[in-house]
Structure formats: structure tokens, C-alpha cells
Amino acid sequence: MFSKIKTCATTKEIWESEGSDETKENKLTVAQQKYESIKMKDDETMTEFDERFSAIIIELNSLGKEFSNRELVLKVMRALPREWDVKTMAMRESKDLKKMELHDMFENLKAYEFELETRSEAGPSTSQPTKALAATTAEPCSPSTSKSADQLSDDVMSLFVKKFGKYLRRSFNPSTSFNNYNKSDKVSSELKCYNCDRPGHFAADCNRPKRDDRYKRDDRRADD
């Protein structure tokens, strides 16, 4: 395909060199699907990703599809793994994406990848940029800092256990339930019925004759 494109001076000539309209449309559809779904692989270097991405763009250009600098730059940023977010965010803040060339962006990313690999303390330089980036973006903790973090975690867990245990003791302590039961009996024994003057129940629960009825019977007996 590239040998054909090199001999074509204009986009029209490139388009015509690709064959029939149906063939061109099929090629364009496939190339667009590649463009939309492209993602940098975990075991891929930035150079390898650059070559793969650029090949798709060249193919789309040959089929008449054009992109602005900003579109291409943003597409590359979105195709990178999450470990590259810090770098791409910095580039968005400091660069004019409309003026940034795709080649310049990849050179910037390759330089950053190289710096990460040389600074990595994980051993020999690795061919996996995402692993090198993950190893260097996480701030190393000193032994004292790590110890403090572990101690804090232990303290939090200890506090949780204490509070939860206290809650369980309050909710399910048999002695508490027994004391509440005895307290209820004590209160009940101190009650005095208004109707019969006997302790242990209310007048509404009294099964003896009502006081007013007793008074009426006594009055009738007095009249007799």
C-alpha cells in the first residue's frame, strides 16, 4: 500500500489508486474501526505504539480521511493506559493541543518513558513502559513512614474492635437483660390498685368489683 501512495501526488490520486468505490469503502470502514478501538498494550513500548497508531492514520489519510492535530493528540492520550494520566494531564495544561504535531507528542512521550525506565528501582530497564511508570509514579515510602502507616492501620482496627465489642456487650449481655427484668418486677410490685388498694396491678386490670359499685351496695344496705 505504501509503495502505491508514494507515487501519488494528491488525495484524489491516492483515493483512485485504492480500487473500486466498494473496496475503498470497505477499507475505510475497517481502518476507522481500528482507529476507534486502538489502545496501547501493556507489553508495548511507546515506539511500537507510535508505529501502530501512525500506520492506521496513514491508511485513513490514503482513503481520504483527515484529522486535525488536536483530534490526533487527544486520541493518543485516550488510548494510553491509566498510568500515563499524570503525564497527559500535564501536557494538556502546558501545551497548545491545536498546534502540537503528532510526531512531537510521541517524541515527548518516548523521552518521558526513557526517563522513567532509567529512574526505576525495579532492576534492569524493562520494555514495558506501563510497569516502569507504575513503579515510579507511586511515591516510595521510607521504613519509618511505612511503619507509621501500619501502626495507624492497627490502631484503627483496634478501635473498631473495641467499639463493636462494647456494642455487642450492651445489646446481648444476659446480666443486663436480667437486671432489666428484675427492675420491671420491682416497679410492678410498687404499683397499687386504686380500686382494691392491693399492690401489683392497675385499677383497669383489677378483677374485683369496682369501687363505685361497692359504695352503691353499701348505701342500699344502710337504707334497708
Automatic annotation (TrEMBL):
MF terms (GO), sorted A to Z: nucleic acid binding; zinc ion binding
Domain of life: Eukaryota
CCHC-type domain span: 192-206
Repeat is among the record's keywords: no
Region (Disordered): 120-150, 199-224
Keywords: Metal-binding, Zinc, Zinc-finger
Feature: compositional bias, Basic and acidic residues: 207-224
PROSITE patterns per the UniProt record, alphabetical: ZF_CCHC (PS50158)
InterPro entries: Znf_CCHC (IPR001878), Znf_CCHC_sf (IPR036875)
Pfam family, one: zf-CCHC
Keyword DNA-binding: no
Entry protein name: Phytoalexin-deficient 4-2 protein
